[in-house]
Design brief:
4 copies of one chain form a homotetramer. In chain A, 58% of the residues lie in helices and 7% in strands. Chain A is mainly alpha-helical. Chain A has 2 domains: 1-81, Orthogonal Bundle (Arc Repressor Mutant, subunit A); 82-126. A 3-stranded antiparallel β-sheet of chain A has the order 1-3-2. In chain A, helix 1 packs across helix 3 and helix 2 packs across helix 3 (50-62). The radius of gyration of chain A is 19 Å and the shape is elongated. The interface between A and B is large, with 51 and 52 residues. Chain B binds a DNA duplex through helix 1 and helix 3.
Chain lengths: 140, 140, 140, 140
DNA sequence: GTGGTCTAGACCACT
DNA sequence: GTGGTCTAGACCACT
């Protein structure tokens, strides 16, 4: 399981972890039935208080994403709440909208915002062709 | 002054307001010396408790964005901390990166992310030419 | 932490508390890193509303005197703004000057002012030798 | 009438003026029956809003310090509330005590406080002999 | 009218 | 337990 924590962020660590686990369950990156790290393992991996991880697992279990099997570990639910995928994506779009409005308020132009977006896409390690570039490549 | 509050958001109202005012001060949308709505006015406009607004104004004053003049109102500081503009933009890019990684985790492809981004740009009322469209323009 | 509130004073409670905490941070009476009472504790100790204490802690945090750690308490900043010590002392002298001019306007003579001053020093629990007394000491 | 305003002070201008006028009435520096400057004159002298002066005069009149005679001006009351002199002096001592405790909290030693006090006395233009100096002079 | 201070109390998030 | 956010409302001070 890959989790990335932004320690400086104003978003609480527990939420950062929870939303990333949720996303990976919904996207299938964490396949149904897969075992996730134990509370202690993940706590150590992220250098976070084990209690924090415990709360996150508890919450995600109550939400139907995970299943805790006493003595054997924590697993991605066999039937994760896939119905929530669209809701999560809607929320994603909503947040993207807010963030872009914020960028606009900071005086960033459409072109600058696009540049930042493509940069961020690259950093997120997505290869997919970029419109401008592919256009240039093919037409030239 | 234009402020948009997302009441459902997990980001506290006060922070939403604060970051929007900060951005507008830095971008010059709120020019130095301009009077901002009174605590009560803004509270009414946003249907938020006046105390919440007061706290925001207090914080922004301590940060150097605003100036409160007893009995006459609250104003954009004559010398707003413009030096923070770049820091704010860096923070914006950082947040954009986080959000896009989140979208990726939700299984969204680069193309889908781009579509969502352009949609959000449109909604943010930015006309600037879109790559796809510019293609159309050149081809015509 | 020792705080003394003059409830009858025209100086708001919150400012009285703030200036005393500031002074103790600068003088080292409250050593860097030390834990200060929780919002609720101090509120109870001083029989003041917790919100008032919270505001004070917020302000002092923004000024760099304190650090709040969510869930674990409030602490004297590791690097308190010692640079402000001289400024605070200058302010002290300025206020002393104002007060003494006021005493003069009330018709108090230099001798009376000195008597009041020595009395106040005694009450402030300072042993340091008094001019008059030291005279006695040297003469004995 | 001599009034000194500290514009940077956190004490409102109106209170600074009021307390100085009160003190001068009680001390007799402003003798009973004496005419004080008109609202406009004083406002101009102190470059303060006339409304502020008006409020001060109103307040002091209601307290018995001044008398306003329509068409001819404002005067020190023929029978100013001298009974308040002791109360004002008590208040002065109380404030002196608070201030000295504050100085102590700032880490100032008794000797430093005394030096500041004598300095302030000098600045307040009081000649009265200083204990230390006079002692030194005579004994040496 | 403006902002400033303070109380009271609810509910949430974090360790 | 800790701090964080928010509401509701009183009363004061300043222009």
């Amino acid at each position: 399981m890959f989790i990335r924590i932004e320690k400086g962020s104003s978003v609480p660590i527990s939420r950062q972890i929870a939303s990333q686990v949720r996303a990976q369950c919904l996207a299938g990156t964490l396949p149904a039935g897969a075992r996730v790290p134990s509370v202690r393992e993940l706590a150590e991996m992220l250098t976070v208080n084990p209690n924090t991880i415990l709360r996150v697992y508890e919450k995600l279990t109550s939400e139907g994403y995970l299943e805790r099997r006493h003595g054997s570990g924590t697993f991605v639910a066999l039937k994760p709440p896939l119905s929530q995928l669209n809701g999560q994506r809607d929320k994603f779009e909503e947040e993207l909208g807010q963030l872009i409005r914020h960028g606009r308020m900071l005086g960033l132009e459409a072109a600058e915002l696009r540049a930042a977006f493509e940069q961020a896409l690259d950093n997120a390690n997505i290869s997919g062709s970029h419109p401008q570039e592919s256009q240039g490549e093919t037409s030239t």
